[in-house]
Amino acid sequence: MALFAFQQHSGPGEFIFELTDEGKISKARKILSGDETSEVHVMGRFRKQRKDYNPHFSYHLDPDTVVFFSYAIEVCDANMNYVEDHLDEAGGAFLPGAYWCPWDSRLVREVTPA
Fold first, then answer.
1. Per-residue confidence at 113, pLDDT binned at 50, 70, 90?
2. Of 15, 56, 79, 89, most Cβ neighbours within 10 A?
3. Distance between alpha carbon 53 and the CA centroid of its chain, in Å?
4. How far apart are CA 41 and CA 20, in angstroms?
5. What b/e string do you get for 72-98 counting C-beta neighbours within 10 Å, with b at 16 or more?
């Protein structure tokens, strides 16, 4: 298990997410080192549940669904704070199927668990 953080150009703060798959952890580390430059944005299915490692948000990314991408459809793009502010609407017409793909997500660091 490893924790990573991303930021978005469209707003302040960072979003912390968990990865449990060794291949995905390796890919995240390659993105941070600069070895991976194509599929660098974060996408996954969110769950409306707070996690201790990401205390500023009432939702988290399901580690089993996280992938890294180059391009995605617009319907899943949103700012992390906007998702928080409209979480009651998320998963319906807003972010259908609970898939979130912030286009401007940028991995910034691996997080050391407290």
1. confident
2. 15
3. 13
4. 18
5. beeebbbbbbbbbeebeebbeeebeeb
What residues pair up with 44 in beta bridges, in sequence order?
100
Taking alpha carbons only, the member of 103, 107, 53 closest to residue 74 is: 103
Mean of the per-residue pLDDT values of the chain = 94
Q: How far apart are CA 25 and CA 83, in angstroms?
A: 25
Residue of 5, 70, 2, 77 whose CA lies nearest to 36: 70
Q: Where are the domains of the chain?
A: 2-111
Closest by CA position to 21, among listed 58, 77, 68, 69: 68
pTM tops 0.90, yes or no: yes
